[in-house]
Every structure is written in structure tokens, then in C-alpha cells.
Amino acid sequence: LMAAIPKDREAVFAYAVRWGEYDRAPADARARVAGWVGKKIRELLGQEEPSFCEFILEQVALHAPAAAMLARLQDVLDEDAGAFVTKLFQVLIFETEKCAAAE
């Protein structure tokens, strides 16, 4: 499964995320995504930012495309935004593909 996840930013941004799988995913899968977001934001900003993490997770729930997510996070994350969004979508791809494979 890991080998199927795109590595470079262009491929990740072009990947068709299985949003239906994310919407139907068990709570623990969404909790892993939320935990990853919280951890990375804490690393990048040096402190916990619950409202910013909530904003990111709302964008995920709205199925925001990677490019739109990048545009929305650029002002806060600056040069880290591209890497953050790429990795976030790799996590989303992994979790949704894992859910699809379990069916």
C-alpha cells in the first residue's frame, strides 16, 4: 500500500483522493489524520494551535483540493506550506486507500 502512494508534490496534488472512503472511514482513521495535523502544526509553529488545526480539518472535511489547501495555508505556514500539504495529502491517500482495501 505504501508503494502506491505518490511521493512527489505534483503527483500527490493530481491524485484523486477517495473522499467517500474518508467520509465513511472509522473514527480511528480520522483521528490519525487529526493527530498528524496537530503534531505537525505543533512542530512547525512551536506551539499548539487548536483553532488552526480545526480549520485544516474543516478543509479536509469539505474535500478541499490540495492546491486550494496550499493557497489557504500559505500565509500562516509560509515556506513550509507546500511540504505540509503534500504530506497531509499523502496521509489522506494512505488512510483512504487502506479503508478501500479493507472493504
What does this structure look like?
75% of the residues lie in helices and 0% in strands. The protein has six helices and no strands. Helix 3 packs across helix 4 (50-61) and helix 5 packs antiparallel against helix 6.
Brief synopsis:
The chain is mainly α and 103 residues long. It has helices at residues 9-14, 19-24, 27-45, 50-61, 66-77, 81-102.
Strand-residue proportion: under 5%
The overall average pLDDT, rounded, is 95
- Residue share in helix: over 70%
By DSSP, the count of extended strands is 0
Low-confidence stretches: none
Q: Quick one: biggest sheet?
A: none
> From the alpha-carbon coordinates, what is the Rg to the nearest angstrom?
13 Å
Shape assignment: globular
Q: Could you spell the SSE succession in H and E letters?
A: HHHHHH
Number of helices: 6
Secondary structure: elements and pairs:
Blueprint: H1 9-14, H2 19-24, H3 27-45, H4 50-61, H5 66-77, H6 81-102
Helix pairs in contact: 3-4, 3-6, 5-6
Notable traits:
103 residues, mainly alpha, 6 helices, 75% helix, globular
